[in-house]
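Q: Convert this sequence to structure tokens.
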Amino acid sequence: MIAIGNFDGLHLGHQALLQKTLEIAKKSGQPSIAYTFTPHPRKAPRLMSDAQKAQSLQDFGVQQVIFQEFTPQFAALSPVDFIEQVLIDQLHASHVIVGPNFAFGANASGKINLLQKDTRFKTHVVEPVWVSKQLCSSSLVREAVLKGDLDQAKALLGRPYSLTGKVVRGAGRGKQIGFPTANLEVEQEVLPPLGVYATYSKELGKGATNIGRQPTFGSANPVHVETHFLNFSGSLYGQEIEIFFERKIRDEKKFNTVDELKKQIQNDLQSL
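A:
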């Protein structure tokens, strides 16, 4: 059972495709395989790192995840060569499961009807998933996150948008002012707009996450993603954590004094 796609974000459309794959695999007694690409064929900013994508696919129930390196040589394969070299020789496909807009081969010139004509495997085309009268897609998820429409992102994903990464050392300003934060070395390339957000971790509970440049402490700071958890004290350095975004609390703001910032943070936490 070969499910083919980018699977970036693992939105509801991807989930429908994978669910179909698992159903066919169960009926046939064959393993379920997700065949995906790295880097993204269209060089789109990533909603997931490769590691997160692999873990998410496995958590969904897929037994094996294969990453195909999207090199210029691979991109130049003709549709016929893709079928022969990849689906037949490499994957030994008996069932191929794709989305309604799937295209393959050089310049995406191979269409679904070419797959359907090949009798060596059975092609399954999964019905499109529509959300708010729009075709569910990774592009729509990216647009929603980038403009801060967390409700739309959640509707497309079937879960709140999240950022993952390792907790690294920051400047320590949060701890100095009484609100220690976990600074996240983010794996994703798509961030919500700068500001303060109500977030949560499944393991660490509720928190307030700031995406910003800490303008109160200077104008040349890089963008940081840092979270203060309401009911946690201790060290998280080196740990991998996932932060789910619920709603935006406010825009990022430069304060005249540190005391003003501390008062605002207290107000932010009371709003969680």
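The two ends are 44 Å apart (CA to CA).
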